[in-house]
From TrEMBL:
Gene3D superfamilies (UniProt xref): Fumarase/aspartase (C-terminal domain) (1.10.40.30), Fumarase/aspartase (Central domain) (1.20.200.10), Fumarase/aspartase (N-terminal domain) (1.10.275.10)
Catalyzed reactions per annotation: (2S)-2-[5-amino-1-(5-phospho-beta-D-ribosyl)imidazole-4-carboxamido]succinate = 5-amino-1-(5-phospho-beta-D-ribosyl)imidazole-4-carboxamide + fumarate; N(6)-(1,2-dicarboxyethyl)-AMP = fumarate + AMP
Pathway(s) it belongs to: Purine metabolism; IMP biosynthesis via de novo pathway; 5-amino-1-(5-phospho-D-ribosyl)imidazole-4-carboxamide from 5-amino-1-(5-phospho-D-ribosyl)imidazole-4-carboxylate: step 2/2; Purine metabolism; AMP biosynthesis via de novo pathway; AMP from IMP: step 2/2
The EC number(s) this enzyme carries: 4.3.2.2
Protein name: Adenylosuccinate lyase
Gene field: purB
Family: Belongs to the lyase 1 family. Adenylosuccinate lyase subfamily.
UniProt keywords, alphabetically: Lyase, Purine biosynthesis
Enzyme class: lyase
Length: 442
């Protein structure tokens, strides 16, 4: 987590002051519950809130204590006692450090998920707006990087919208999966604390109770959470890579907005590089990389070891902050994306009509020509166009003309039947259907 790729609202979730505030709330709510069942005096529980509810915890002081205790929760509790006074002895009754740490991490990840869901909503809004803007803007579809058949640019964006809709649903599920609380004591048996305390704290912190915990909340929940972040990051990268390809000089069907005063290269003043989407590709790699250590955290020893702790202290902030930044950057790229319909049309025409080859193939088979012979007839004419394209960068041989001049093709298809197969609108006739599937009746 570095400032360059951070946004303040997400970063604030992981600030020490925020963490200590959550720790205090967990401890104070637990003390309230203990007071309700008669384990600690009610006036002591009230005093704890009164003394520390609005306190600013001294991070430097806690760090100073931890240098001696070598234990962060004990350091915090020691500092809390300095604030609260004698009543602090009733804090942390029957609890273990992981009750505080794990429940706090759940709260932080829930808050992070809420921000990420809002980020995806911004991406979805941008994609929807631009998709309808270019719903019928024809462009060439590519498979293996090679011209295939016509699509529309709006369909490309509708596809991304559908993918990010799935991303949103996964984040909602991941949020639910991670939103559990464990206040169950040293090995999860509630030996020294009543289960009602866990119920109370969970409700106050907006969490569900963990059905069965050890000393910790089971880490399969966390593995799922970070795996989902990795999948969302992959969706970010997929759209970013598409934009990068479309911005290549030889294609240039779309490009990132290039602002006044922006520079593309320290050496070459002419450059307009896709730096934002390249950056997103790199950030996606980072977010994905955090999924593996989260999965490796699942297999802890017996009721718990501490091998997961160092991992989570790093990947919790890093993964959520990085993905938050990436999603917002992607939304901005889509919102300002410069699109060139004329270049799309020009590129589509560069192969001299080859994009209609399948229609000719099907027409021949429907006229009684075997598929093998039909394929041979279409391909031999198509290769003439390919050869001319390779030499000049734009086809100088026209596919339609070659077909009309081929006696074997003409034996099966009339001129009118051949020409009819070169209708661009044929490829776009179901765009409305696809849009309704993606966007409903919007």
């Amino acid at each position: 987590m570095i400032p360059r790729y951070s946004r303040p609202e997400m970063t604030a979730i992981w600030e020490p002051q925020t963490r200590f505030r959550i720790w205090f709330e967990i401890e104070a709510h637990a003390t309230d519950a203990l007071a309700e069942i008669g384990v600690v005096p009610k006036d002591a529980a009230a005093k704890i809130w009164a003394m520390a509810k609005d306190a600013t915890f001294d991070v430097d002081r806690i760090d100073e204590i931890e240098r001696v205790t070598k234990h962060d929760v004990i350091a915090f509790l020691t500092h809390l006692a300095e604030i609260v006074g004698p009543e602090a002895r009733f804090v942390h009754q029957g609890m273990t450090s992981s009750d505080v740490l794990d429940t706090c991490l759940s709260v932080q990840l829930v808050r992070a998920a809420d921000l990420l869901i809002a980020d995806v909503d911004r991406v979805l809004a941008a994609l929807k707006t631009r998709a309808f803007e270019h719903k019928l803007t024809p462009t060439i579809g590519r498979s293996h990087g090679i011209h295939a058949e016509p699509v529309t640019f709006g369909l490309k964006l509708a596809e991304a919208f559908a993918e990010f809709s799935r991303a949103r649903a996964r984040l909602v599920f991941a949020r639910q999966e991670i939103a559990t609380c464990a206040i169950s004591g040293a090995v999860g048996t509630f030996a020294n604390i009543d289960p009602r305390v866990e119920d109370y704290v969970a409700e106050k912190m907006g969490l569900a109770v963990e059905p069965v915990s050890t000393q910790v909340i089971p880490r399969d929940r966390h593995a799922m959470f970070f795996a989902v972040l990795g999948v969302v990051a992959s969706s970010v990268e997929r759209l970013a890579v598409e934009i990068r390809h479309l911005q290549r000089t030889e294609v240039l069907e779309a490009e990132e907005y290039f602002s006044p005063g922006q520079k593309g290269s320290s050496a070459m003043p002419h450059k307009r590089n896709p730096v934002l989407t390249e950056n997103l590709t790199g950030l996606a790699r980072m977010v994905r990389s955090y999924a593996m250590p989260a999965m490796e955290n699942v297999a802890l020893w017996h009721e718990r070891d501490i091998s997961h702790s160092s991992v989570e202290r790093m990947i919790g902030p890093d993964a959520t902050v990085t993905l938050d930044f990436a999603l917002n950057r992607l939304a901005g790229v889509v919102e300002k994306l410069v699109i060139y319909p004329e270049r799309m049309s020009l590129n589509m025409d560069r192969l001299g009509g080859l994009v209609h080859s399948q229609r000719i193939l099907l027409a021949l088979t429907q006229k009684g020509v075997s598929r093998e012979d039909a394929y041979r007839l279409v391909q031999r004419n198509a290769m003439k166009v390919w050869d001319s394209y390779q030499k000049s960068g734009t086809a100088t041989v026209d596919f339609l003309t070659e077909l009309l001049g081929d006696p074997e093709v003409r034996a099966a298809l009339s001129e009118a039947e051949i020409r009819e197969k070169f209708d661009l609108g044929y490829h776009l006739k179901h765009v409305d259907t696809i849009f309704r599937r993606v966007f409903g009746d919007a």
